[in-house]
């Protein structure tokens, strides 16, 4: 197995999206890359999972019932235990306003749906793997 095939092994990735299709698609793509995948269908449901499992990175949909992506991101980033977890916002809109608002609440990146396997893995590479290389 080449280095690139197992570079994602053991990474805990969480996908929070109210669309079952998006969650399943992301989960399948990420599992094939070797990630451990956690999912939730809204921010409210995600918070106890984040607390219990401390994922390495979060992909959060913006438009969700109960607790939207911005609120979820803000709650994660305002908690000293979790503020270092990179957050990638997912949206079907590619608006400047959404990107700016995502930055305000602390999101590291913004992906527009439909995303590709490379979008997801690229985000993980940028925020997790390059960070660990910088630390070494």
TrEMBL record:
* Modification type 4-aspartylphosphate: residues: 61
Q: Which residues form the Response regulatory domain?
A: 12-128
Q: Which Pfam families match?
A: Response_reg
Please give the InterPro entries that the UniProt record associates with this protein. Answer: Bact_response_regulator, CheY-like_superfamily, Sig_transdc_resp-reg_receiver
Please name the Gene3D superfamilies in this protein's record. 3.40.50.2300
Keyword annotations for this protein, in alphabetical order, are: Phosphoprotein, Two-component regulatory system
Matches recorded under PANTHER family: PROTEIN PILG, STRESS RESPONSE REGULATOR PROTEIN 1
Spell out the protein name for this chain: Twitching motility response regulator PilG
Task: Identify the taxonomic lineage of the organism of origin.
Answer: Bacteria, Pseudomonadati, Pseudomonadota, Gammaproteobacteria, Thiotrichales
This protein's gene is called pilG
